[in-house]
Every structure is written in C-alpha cells, then in structure tokens.
Design brief:
With 632 residues, this protein is an alpha/beta fold. The chain is built from 23 helices and 20 strands.
Length: 632
C-alpha cells in the first residue's frame, strides 16, 4: 500500500495517538505458539491413527474461540485463523486417510474470532481480512471448495475496548484464548480521554499514575479469566510493565487473586510491518489462573535482537524471572545497612543560575565577584560525556557581594520572576529565596555518582567518584563519602544485572532510582578478606580508567571501546570475581540466573532487614586519587 507523505504522516500520527503498533508475524507467533498452538500440535500427534480421537479433535478445533481486544486490522486474528485452519487440514488429511473414517469437511470458520478496534476503518479491514484468509485456506484444502454465500463473519466490534463489556462481545463461558498487542502509552503520553479510561479500570487505586495504558487490558482480561478459569491470555506489551514502579502496582493485585504467568519473552527489540515503525522494546506475557508445572521463558540477554534462548523454569514472577513472587516497593531506606543514596540538587531556576562554558568564561572576564561563586555543575549527560557545565552556587553569598555584582543581581531577579510566574504554589514560595536552588542536597564530602539515565547499550552503567566541589543535579544519584567497597559492588555485573531487571526505562535507556533499584538491592556480607579483594579490584578499575586521561565515561564504556580496552575489561572481570565470591555465587554468568539468585537473597533479607555488609566490620577504604579527571 502506498500513499503520499502527508497522508503517511497522518496515519503514523494517528497510530501513535492510539498507542497502536503493527505486529509482525514473527512477534505474533511468539505469542500464539506457546499460548495454544504448540499444545494443539502435540495433541494432534497423540491422535494420529485413531479415527475417534481425530474426529473429536476436529470438533474441538471448531469449538475454540479467540478474542483480540485491540485487533487493529486483524493481524493476530488472521495469523491465528490461518494456523488453526492449517492444523485442522492436517487433522482432516490424517482422518480421511484412516481406515473406517468418514470423509469430513472443514468445520472451523471465521465466526470463532472476535475483536474490538477503536478505528472504524481498521475494524472493517479486519473483517474483510478474515474472509480473505478463509478463502485462501479453502483453496488450499480442495480445488473448488468455497463458502458462498458468506454466512459467517468475524465478530469485530468498533469502539473503545476499555469501555466495552468484553463478556458481551464474547461470553467468557465460550471463550478459549485472549491474545493481541494492545496500545502502549506512558502516563505522560496519554490523552485526557485515555487517562479517563485508566481511571475507569483502576479507580482510585494508589500508584496507578505510573502505569502504562496497556496495563488496563491485563486487568480486563483477567476479569474474564476469573469468570472462566479455562481461558488463557497473552499480550505483546511495552517492557516497562515488568520493570520499576509499575510491577508492584499492576501485578501484585493480580497475583494476589491467583494469576500465574505461564510463559514470557523477556525484553526484545520491536520489529513490525507497515510504516511508522515504533522504536520500542517489548515483552510478551502469557498468563492464566491455573498454576503451570513448567514455564517457558525466553531471554534475549543484552543483545535484544534475534532469537531468544528458551529456558524451562519452575515459575515466572512479575519481573519475568524464575524466582518467588516478590514485589519491590518504593523503599525509603536501603534494605541493608549501607550508605543512603540521594538525588543531587534541583535548580528550579528557569536557567538563570546555570552556565554554559561560554557563560562561565564571560562572567570570569567581566564580573570577578560573581566569578567567585561559579562551581562545576553536572547532570547525567555532562557526567557521562565529560561535558563542561557550570552554575552559580550562592548558598554563602553575602549582601555586599550581591550589591556589588550586576551579574548576580540580574540572574537572581530572573529566578525570582520565573518562580513567581509558576502555577505551582511550592515554586512560588521559592521566590522568597531566589539565590538558592529549589532543592539542595549537596554532599559535604566527595561522593559516588550514578547517572539517573544511561544507555542500555552499555554492559555497566557509568559510575564514578566526584569532588564535593562539584554540584550534581537532580539527574545524578549520589552516595556521600562513598567507599571503594561500595563502588566495587555497584560496578559489578551482579548489581548491573539487578539494575537491568528492576529499573524503569526512559524509552529504552536505563532509569536508575534509589527507591526501587538501590534501596531494595541485597548486598553481600563478605569476610574482611573478601571485602579487601573487592576494594583492590575496584581501585584497579579506577587505575585502568586513569590510563586514558581526558576520555569520558561514555567513551570508556562504549561496548566497542570496552572490548578493546583490555586493562579495564580485566579490572571489571576481577571485580565480578571478587563480588561473586562475596555472594558465594557459582551459577551461570547470565543476568537471568544472577537476578533469580538475588531475588531469593532479597526474600531472606526482607524477613531479617538491616543486615550489615562486612565493610562495617572493616575500615571503609577510600579510592586512591589516580587522575585529575572530574569523574574518576
């Protein structure tokens, strides 16, 4: 299908407004194969040679009903119907070649398929697409076999699925499977009408303001499953519903009501058909009420393209890990007795207290009084990329200096005007102290810095030590007076695996939070010798970085550069070995096994909180200064 650029852009925007993403057949098969197709294929294999069983199996296939509550143009329904008809044809060929069996014609038809679609044009296309698929499969069955006139049709309803009674579209007592790719939109991307949809589904449940739009489909699907426990469901979704704050808000109430995850595809790179390809990362979750004996879990590792590695697991929790059904809450303090993590300071200044490199130089050239208050200022991007940025830090500004500095007067006046014009009352109150940052959390000692957002391409999130002279923004997490032991554990693959599974995401990038990732992290309790080994390895990481003076953390931890930088890679390997030894971890090196191990440890520590890591029993060792770089 072709259209001009203007029309194409309009269609792309319309899909984006709906949160719709066309699904490739590959991703459809990732959902329907483990949901029902593999089981039906196995059942057919057991029926071969037995005419009665084969006939009963044909009848069973014709009794199944499938429902896609966000069906778009019918991709899921079309592929599912095609595979159902193909399975039926295989069964009929086997039956018709079995001695004593009567010749049987196809029984499966489009009326077994149901959908809801908000776009009226797409709903019509889905209906026609099902007829076309039926015709194609009839042609494959026997020359001249036709269903004319068209008596049956797919049951496609046009409208907002979140305002439809799904049980009225297809009675739960008749329904077999729910499957599809509902729209996913983050809370800030949702329209007022979509927010109203969410309120209709979740009511006043606390914390639902973090939920993606797709989560409402899970709740409505589970409501049907409770009416008929034989129903099973699977959705393609944004991976954000299995990460960060959303997990406990969405999944804990469902697990409490008996939901079990039967199979899952962990994060994989989205690929679809049609224009306007969405740059998203997805998961597929299959679920129901019955407790599975074995679960299928596909893991794509950090290379989230291509085929995943299938693991047979005992269970799958809401983080898509073979681990207990644990839900990480927004914890205010660390699970273990380690140093607290805080955000940096937030200016709320309209940009008047922040300086580019050119601004900084201009002030030094023209206003020596204001220049005395210039401090380096780093957000996550500046920290990672070693980009110079500055601010005016006026916590100790004197009235005499203010009176003598036109630059300070001008900038403070700008802050005051910006704050007074704000619609937010707390910001208006800050106009009383326009020389200060809106939120001040400046470490008094040198500190460990962790960027709030960093690229998912990196094996390790970039972490470093910063001087107390540097002002970290609210986009940096800080550990004041941080030690080598803490730095080593946080740089380890063990911690990075935990981070990858539990953090939220900004697009596909990691979004590190203290309340979910750090405060829930189960730290090791090493012996003094094990702690010393971690400290030695951590210092080796800093020394290896110092061999490249002036290079940014972004450059050092670019995957290609890290592979070439033998000394840094060897140092990180030593950190991993020391940290794994402190945990007593001897299992596989992949993230899935590591996180499963950590969840089990978390479960133990949560029952006996505030256990102390060994550094409290040994002197806290600080890093040796090996470089003049701001981010060591």
């Amino acid at each position: 299908m072709h259209w001009d650029d203007e029309e194409a852009q309009g269609k792309t925007k319309k899909r984006r407004d709906f949160g719709a993403h066309y699904t490739s057949e590959r991703n459809i098969r990732r959902a329907i194969d483990p949901l029902f197709l593999e089981a039906l294929q196995a059942e057919l294999a057991l029926c071969k040679g037995d005419a009665k069983k084969l006939k009963n199996f044909v009848t069973k296939l014709a009794s199944l009903h499938f429902f896609d509550p966000a069906c778009g143009c019918g991709n899921f329904l079309v592929v599912t119907y095609r595979e159902l008809r193909w399975l039926e044809q295989q069964t009929l060929l086997e039956l018709n070649n079995t001695p004593g069996a009567q010749q049987t014609m196809p029984l499966c038809n489009v009326h077994q398929f149901h959908g809801i679609e908000i776009d009226p044009t797409a709903a019509e296309i889905a209906t026609v697409a099902m007829w076309l698929t039926d015709h194609q499969m009839n042609q494959r069955w026997a020359s001249g076999y036709k269903r004319i006139p068209l008596v049956s049709k797919a049951n496609i309803h046009q409208g907002n699925a979140l305002r439809f009674d799904w049980n009225a579209v297809i009675a739960a007592s008749k329904l077999s499977f729910i499957v599809g790719n509902p729209p996913f939109l983050g809370y800030t991307q949702q329209s007022a009408e979509q927010k109203a949809d969410m309120a209709l589904i979740f009511g006043k449940t606390q914390g639902t303001g973090v939920l993606d739009y797709v989560t409402a489909w899970y709740v409505k699907a589970f409501a049907l499953i409770k009416l008929n426990p034989q129903i099973k469901a699977a959705f393609v979704s944004t991976n954000s519903i299995t990460q960060g704050e959303q997990v406990s808000v969405l999944w804990q109430p469902l697990f409490d009501q008996g939901l079990h995850i039967h199979f899952a595809h962990r994060t994989f790179k989205w690929s679809n058909e049609g224009s306007g390809v969405a740059a998203v990362h997805c998961v597929i979750v299959g679920f129901g009420l019955d407790k599975p004996k074995k679960c299928d879990l596909w893991d794509y590792g950090q290379k989230i393209g291509g085929d995943g590695q299938l693991q047979k697991t005992r269970r799958i929790n809401a983080y898509l890990v073979d681990a207990p059904a644990i839900f990480l809450s927004n914890r205010r303090e660390p699970l273990c007795k380690v140093s607290p993590m805080n955000k940096g300071s937030q200016p709320t200044d309209g940009g008047h207290l922040l300086l580019s490199a050119d601004d900084e130089q201009a002030i030094r050239d023209t206003d020596p009084i204001a220049a005395r208050y210039i401090r380096p200022f780093l957000g996550a991007e500046e920290f990672i990329n070693n980009t110079p940025r500055f601010c005016l830090w006026l916590a100790h500004m004197t009235n005499a200096d203010l009176a003598a500095s036109p630059e300070l007067q001008r900038r403070i006046a700008g802050v005051k005007a910006m704050r007074l014009a704000s619609p937010k009352v707390p910001t208006q109150k800050l106009a009383a102290v326009p020389h200060l940052f809106g939120e001040i959390r400046q470490p008094k000692e040198d500190f460990i810095a962790i960027p709030e957002v960093s690229s998912e391409r990196r094996t390790f999130i970039p972490i470093g030590f910063l001087s107390a002279n540097i002002i970290p923004s609210n986009k940096i997490q800080t550990i004041s007076n941080g030690t080598l032991f803490q730095f080593g554990v946080l740089c380890s693959t063990m911690h990075n695996a935990w981070m990858r599974y539990t953090c939220g995401r900004l697009k596909s990038d990691y979004s590190y939070s203290s309340s979910i990732v750090y405060n829930n992290y189960p730290w090791p309790t090493p012996s003094p010798a094990q702690q010393a080994a971690i400290e030695t390895a951590a210092q080796a990481v800093l020394d290896a970085r110092a061999q490249h003076p002036g290079q940014s953390l972004a450059w050092l931890y670019d995957p290609e550069n890290l592979r070439k930088n033998k000394s840094l890679q060897v140092a990180h390997d030593a950190v991993d070995e020391a940290v794994d030894d402190a945990y007593g971890y001897e299992e596989s090196n992949d993230d899935t096994h590591r996180v499963a191990y950590l969840f089990k440890l978390y479960e133990k520590l949560a029952l006996a909180p505030m256990l102390e890591p060994a550094e409290t029993a040994s002197p806290a060792k600080k890093p040796r200064k090996t470089t003049s770089s701001k981010a060591r």
